[in-house]
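Friendly challenge for the regulars: who can give me the structure tokens for this chain first? No prize, just bragging rights.
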Amino acid sequence: MSTPDTIASLSSSALSSTPSPVVNQALEPASVRDGSPTVQKDYNEALSFESVLVNQLCQQLVSSTGMSGEGDSGSSSDSGSSSGDPTVSDFSSLLPGALSSAIMSDGGLGLAAQILPSIEASAAGSSGSSSDTAASGATLS
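First reply, four minutes later:
Bragging rights claimed.
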């Protein structure tokens, strides 16, 4: 159930190889802009998690349209025509990255701001306060 544990495991594997998304600082919450370096670091970790999630969603979106050329969805005639065209295959391989970059550069989906209290509560919980972690987990569910 622990969202902070999930974020921590992603942070150590997928997020370490993923560059931090570029987000306009004016779109960041005021608590992050005016916050301590620790809060800004935690927010960047939450943004990285959101970026990975948005990228995965965009990849699923492209593959569900039948443009991926894999033929795993859609009718066989549609996937057969797109898989033979290298232009469509090249174009569709660029779509998920371009779409996720556009979403993240415009502030993302807002998940990072929702995840930030859990990350902060997890950090506070590791120093002894477990009631804050339970309370923040209840608000996110």
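Residues 3-8+37-128 form one domain. DSSP finds eight helices and no strands in the chain. Your move, everyone else.
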